[in-house]
């Protein structure tokens, strides 16, 4: 589970919220598959609307230009983000995300390795609406500032608790990683983050850094599935 401190600035969040407020919204059940539909009780911005599509594309571009997202997910394919909204007493019960999804408007399929929620409401705008992820260390509760995101394994059971005040708006997407194995992906992430930290600390052991960098890229070469 990885928190991305900032994907969107406060100004960008306001713009997204303004445009989403005027967008057409549909019943979220329409986009849930199988068992997930029976526990899904929220609204989803109409993905066929031009403005919504444009917002999704803007956010998609942000993912690709956020180093922490790239490092943590090593994305090969990214599902165009969907925008969801939970009003009072709306929730999304425990579910797993579908393992394979068709990318809308294409014949391409995507295997969901990582799921990602980008928060578009500030925590003080609503009560409830926590994202709960079941992990081997127990349930993790997540509620982040607007513009922040969390990446979590698509294989984990998760839910969004009922909103009891205000409304919770978020963007959600799924990524197929170049590295299917989650623990390998996690090790690669740790290696990359450590290299980046050494560089940012002004470490001058240039040839050792080059070696580490080389190892990192060779591991990617060895384990990448495209
Ligand atoms: O709104 C969220 O944070 C998560 C939504 C979700 O789990 C889903 O759409 O599959
Ligand atoms: Fe989900």
TrEMBL record:
It comes from the Bacteria. Signal peptide: none annotated. One of its GO terms (biological process) is intracellular iron ion homeostasis. 2-oxoglutarate binds at residue 168. Its cofactor is L-ascorbate; Fe(2+). Binds 1 Fe(2+) ion per subunit. HAMAP family: Hydroxyl_YbiX (MF_00657). This is Fe2+-dependent dioxygenase.
């Amino acid at each position: 589970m990885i928190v991305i401190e900032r994907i969107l600035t406060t100004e960008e969040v306001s713009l997204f919220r303004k445009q989403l407020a005027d967008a057409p919204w549909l019943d979220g059940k329409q986009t849930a598959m199988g068992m997930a539909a029976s526990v899904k009780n929220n609204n989803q911005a109409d993905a066929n609307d031009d403005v919504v599509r444009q917002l999704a594309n803007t956010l998609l571009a942000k993912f690709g230009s956020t180093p922490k997202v790239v490092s943590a997910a090593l994305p090969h394919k990214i599902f165009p983000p969907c925008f969801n909204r939970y009003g009072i007493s709306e929730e999304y019960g425990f579910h797993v995300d579908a393992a394979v999804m068709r990318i809308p408007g294409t014949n391409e399929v995507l295997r969901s390795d990582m799921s990602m929620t980008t928060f578009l409401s500030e925590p003080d705008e609503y009560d409830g609406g926590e994202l709960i992820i079941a992990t081997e260390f127990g349930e993790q509760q997540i509620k982040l500032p607007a513009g922040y995101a969390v990446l979590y394994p698509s294989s984990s059971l998760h839910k969004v608790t009922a909103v009891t005040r205000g409304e919770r708006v978020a963007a959600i997407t799924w990524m197929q990683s170049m590295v299917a194995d989650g623990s390998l992906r996690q090790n690669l992430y740790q290696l990359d983050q450590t290299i980046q930290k050494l560089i940012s600390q002004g470490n001058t052991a240039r040839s050792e850094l080059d070696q580490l960098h080389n190892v990192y890229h060779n591991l990617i070469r060895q384990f990448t599935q495209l």
